[in-house]
Design goal:
This protein is mainly alpha-helical. The two termini are about 55 Å apart. Helices cover about 55% and strands about 0% of the residues. The longest helix has about 35 residues.
Length: about 140
């Protein structure tokens, strides 16, 4: 096929606007504009640390811009590990139970859990991870 036939087919097809007077030139111009915009963005981002260093020299950080010094909390009084739960913790537990249960509730006994009783968290994690295992199929 000759070039004239291909050009004639292209001008009659849906790609005809590309081969007319402004089609390809407009596409090239659009790509040039996009790439120039990207180059400008790269330049701005690359120069940002330099600009920050210059601004820091002109306007140094003063003491009123710095974070206020944090007050160091007093160390908590040593708690005797006699198995007795402090009164303020019991009040929190009673408030939580009263909020969670619909009717009147009487707390009969409270005690601290031992390490073996805390193993339920590990069991929960094991069951959660086991639920994500994929089932093998017999093929």
């Amino acid at each position: 096929m000759s070039t004239a036939i291909l050009l004639a087919e292209a001008t009659e097809s849906r790609f005809a606007p590309l081969f007319e007077e402004t089609g390809i030139a407009l596409a090239v111009m659009g790509m040039v504009v996009v790439f120039l915009a990207l180059i400008v963005l790269i330049a701005i981002i690359s120069l940002f640390p330099v600009a920050m260093a210059v601004i820091e020299k002109i306007l140094p950080e003063s003491s009123h811009h710095a974070a206020a010094p944090k007050k160091t909390p007093k160390p908590a009084a040593p708690v005797a590990d006699d198995g007795v739960i402090p009164g303020h913790i019991l009040a929190i537990i009673a408030a939580a139970v009263a909020e969670a249960e619909p009717g009147p509730v009487r707390i009969v006994r409270t005690r601290q859990l031992t390490t073996s009783e805390l193993a339920w968290t590990l069991e929960g994690r094991i069951r959660h991870h086991a639920s994500h295992r994929l089932q093998t199929r017999n093929r």
